[in-house]
C-alpha cells in the first residue's frame, strides 16, 4: 500500500497493492495497521455505497459540520469517477482550492479526504458504484453542501451538464455556507 501526496496537504491518494493471476485478482483496500504505518490514524465507523445509473451524475459538494465532521476514504468499485476534495477550513492557505483524481474500478486508487474538506464526485461512465468509509456517523443536523459550480472554487467538471439532486442544485456558494471549520496550522 502506498500513500501519494496531492497538492492539498492532508488529502492523499492511496494505492493498494494488487495481486493477480489466472483466476483474477486480490487487493487489501483497508488495514488499520497498514494505514498507521503510512501515518494515517483514522478509525472508520461506517461504510457507505452509492450507485449512479447515468454518466454525468454529480453528487456533492458535501460535508458535515462540527461536531459530526467526517474524514472519508473513497473508492470506485464499478465504472469511473472524477473525485474532488475542496479545502473549506477558514483561514487555510488553501481555502477554496480543490484537487481532482480519477478513481476507477480498474486503477484501484482511493482518495483520503480529511476533516475540513468538502467532497464531490462526477460519474464518467454509466452504472457506477462508489464505496467510502467515514470516521463519524451520518448526522442530518450537521449535513451541508456547497454548490458544485461555485466560481470561487472553479472545479473543472468537463463539458458534461451534470445530473443533480434538488439538494445539490440548491446548495449555497462557499461564501454563503455556514461551514464551521477553522484552520489549525
Describe this structure in words.
The chain has helices at residues 32-37, 166-169; strands at residues 2-5, 12-15, 18-21, 24-27, 46-52, 58-64, 72-78, 80-87, 98-104, 110-113, 117-123, 128-134, 143-145. The chain is mainly beta. It has one domain (7-13, 44-176): Sandwich (Jelly Rolls), CATH 2.60.120.10. A 6-stranded antiparallel sheet has the order 1-2-10-7-12-5, with no helix packed on it. The longest helix is centred in the N-terminal third of the chain and has 6 residues, at 32-37. The radius of gyration is 16 Å and the shape is globular. The protein has 2 helices and 13 strands; from the N terminus they run ββββαβββββββββα. It starts with a strand and ends in a 16-residue tail after the last helix.
Summarize the structure.
The protein is mainly beta. It is 5% helix and 39% strand.
Essential attributes:
six-stranded antiparallel beta sheet; globular; five-stranded antiparallel beta sheet; 185 residues; Jelly Rolls; 13 strands; 39% strand; mainly beta
Describe the secondary-structure layout.
Elements: E1 2-5, E2 12-15, E3 18-21, E4 24-27, H1 32-37, E5 46-52, E6 58-64, E7 72-78, E8 80-87, E9 98-104, E10 110-113, E11 117-123, E12 128-134, E13 143-145, H2 166-169
Antiparallel strand pairs: 1-2, 2-10, 3-4, 5-12, 6-11, 6-13, 7-10, 7-12, 8-9, 8-11
What fraction of the residues are assigned to beta strands by DSSP?
35-45%
> Which geometry do the CA atoms define?
globular
CATH superfamily heading = Jelly Rolls
Helix content: under 10%
Q: What is the CATH T-level topology?
A: Jelly Rolls
CATH C-level: Mainly Beta
Biggest beta sheet attributes: 6 strands, antiparallel
Q: Give the radius of gyration.
A: 16 Å
Count of domains: 1
Give the name of the CATH architecture: Sandwich
Topology as H/E string? EEEEHEEEEEEEEEH
The helix count comes to: 2
Mean pLDDT: 96
Order of strands in the sheet with most strands:
1-2-10-7-12-5
Structural class: mainly beta
Q: Determine the N-to-C terminus distance.
A: 28 Å
Q: Total number of β-strand segments?
A: 13
Low-pLDDT stretches are: none
